[in-house]
Specification:
By secondary structure, this protein is α/β, with parallel strands linked by helices. The longest helix has 26 residues. It is globular and about 75 Å long.
Length: 496
């Protein structure tokens, strides 16, 4: 159970502690932040409301710990990460329990997230040894006008203190996708978890604590973004920020100092369906891509752009599959569970009502109870409707009928987002041409958008973010290249 057994020390009464300098602590503020269960809409957990002074101490500790950690052998860093991964997977049940209660993620998917996170940490340890164990040797006479009088040894060194800010929907997995690359590269890590998902993150951090990482190297501060958010992201002691979320990331990028930024900020992932597509395959992927975890995924299908000639058939196939979705509490492993907050549900409802007023075809009756919104397919959506462009982050999916491939590509590219997209066709030549024309970081051919596997490059264009994720890219983003040049008194040629 959460907060018991090996996790007992992270809980004080009914408030979870924050993690600093290798210890679980109560905030001097004496205040806490409530975490509301999306299903019951009652307070489920409480976490510390950390102060700016406590943030200062956390970053100072991180800076000191990082200096020693950078001198720790690479194999030792990897060894500790493997140990943390094993502990994380060993304790998947209490962490999954938190995910169910904090973010209403179905129980089975919650356990899968924790196991996947452990696998990500282990893979990062292995990849880090490979990437960081190699340098580069350059010679000066490869550039015109130079003799071989200089040897350059290029290596990768850590940045310092990395600030990681994951989102509510995958708080554990997207936290470790930042934590593990930072640590294997020799950095210290400060984690600011989302409010919904904070207790899951605190349990995950305790697994790293149990693995025996040095004090101060990993910290986890909780609290209100309005009080410590900007203070963290603008802190002069932070050397890199890895953020996953929404519009907040754009604000961070404008305020942060001259440091590397890695940001994934959402999407309006388009699904383009051609006449020759396997419509059963398309329908199955629309259900998986549009409605899994109630559509609360950055890589969810957010708009279907289907050729008019096959639109009726596809809509009927999707409707039949929507009717089979199980709706209810996450504890029962339902397909559609309550969205994360009441404000999220209200936003989604606003998009639905706008579409209704402007004449969209409702393939199901709109139904809502509290934060629970029944899955809804909206046909005959037009570009003047908000749902055509805005990201609902819920179980509502618009269908726009198109008369040409060019029309579908134009709609995709007219969006301010550019995370992922997908195209369904049996013609690989058409698929590649469309993929090249779509202004998105990734295009899936004959499958729904997805972030994983976690070692694949993952990036967005336009307002969907900057930088690239994926284990290898994240490691490389969290290091600098340092060159050491040896100057010779005379040209030297091998075997000369």
């Amino acid at each position: 159970m959460a907060g018991t057994g090996v996790f007992a020390e992270i809980l004080d009464g009914d408030v979870y502690k924050y993690y600093s300098d290798g210890e679980w602590k109560k905030s001097a503020s004496g205040k806490s932040v409530a975490i509301v269960n999306p299903t019951t809409r009652k307070t489920q957990y409480k976490v510390q409301a950390c102060t700016q002074e406590e943030v200062n101490k956390v970053i100072e500790s991180a800076k000191s710990a990082q200096k020693l950690w950078a001198k720790t052998p690479l194999w030792k860093r990897a060894e500790l990460l493997h140990k943390a991964a094993a502990i994380l997977k060993m304790h998947k049940d209490p962490i999954a329990e938190c995910l169910v209660k904090e973010i209403a993620k179905p129980a089975k998917d919650s356990a899968t997230e924790v196991v996947r996170s452990g696998d990500l940490v282990s893979y990062t340890a292995e990849e880090g040894v490979r990437i960081l164990g190699e340098g580069k040797f350059l010679v000066s006479d490869s550039f015109p006008g130079n003799e071989r009088t200089k040897y350059c040894l290029a290596s990768k060194i850590p940045l310092g203190v990395v600030l990681a800010i994951p989102p509510f929907n995958y708080p554990v997995n997207l936290a470790v996708s930042k934590i593990a690359p930072a640590l294997v590269a020799g950095n210290a890590l400060v984690l600011k978890p989302p409010t919904q998902g904070a207790v899951s993150c605190l349990h995950m951090v305790h697994c790293f604590h149990l693995a025996g990482f040095p004090k101060g190297l990993i910290s986890c501060v909780t609290g209100k973004g309005s009080e410590i958010g900007d203070f963290l992201t603008m802190h002069p002691g932070v050397n890199c920020i890895s953020f996953t979320g929404g519009d907040t990331g754009i604000a961070i990028s404008k305020k942060a100092s001259m440091i590397p930024l890695q940001m994934e900020l959402g999407g309006k992932d388009a699904c383009i369906v051609l006449e020759d597509a396997d419509l059963d395959l398309v329908a199955a992927n629309i259900i998986k891509g549009g409605f899994s975890y109630s559509g609360q995924r950055c890589t969810a299908i957010k708009v279907v752009l289907v050729m008019e000639s096959v639109a009726d058939s596809l809509v009927e196939k999707v409707k039949a599959r929507v009717a089979k979705l199980r709706i209810g509490p996450p504890e029962d492993d339902c397909d559609i569970t309550p969205v994360v907050t009441e404000s999220s549900a209200n936003f989604i409802e606003g998009l639905v009502m706008d579409a209704k007023e402007k004449g969209a075809t409702f393939c199901q009756e709109y139904k809502r109870e509290g934060n629970l919104i029944w899955p809804l397919l909206l046909d005959n959506v037009r570009p003047d409707m908000r749902i055509a462009w805005e990201e609902p982050f819920g179980p509502v999916l618009p269908v726009i009928r198109i008369s040409s491939v060019e029309e579908g590509i134009h709609h995709c590219n007219a969006s301010n987002f550019g995370l992922q997209g997908c195209v369904f066709t049996k013609d690989i030549n058409k698929a590649l041409l469309i993929s090249d024309a779509m202004e998105t970081g990734t295009v899936q051919i004959n499958s729904a958008p997805a972030r994983g596997p976690d070692h694949f490059p993952f990036q967005g264009l336009k307002d969907s973010g900057i930088g690239s994720q994926g284990i290898t890219n994240s490691i490389n983003m969290m290091v600098k290249v340092k060159s050491t040049v040896i100057n010779l008194p005379a040209p030297s040629y091998t075997m000369g």
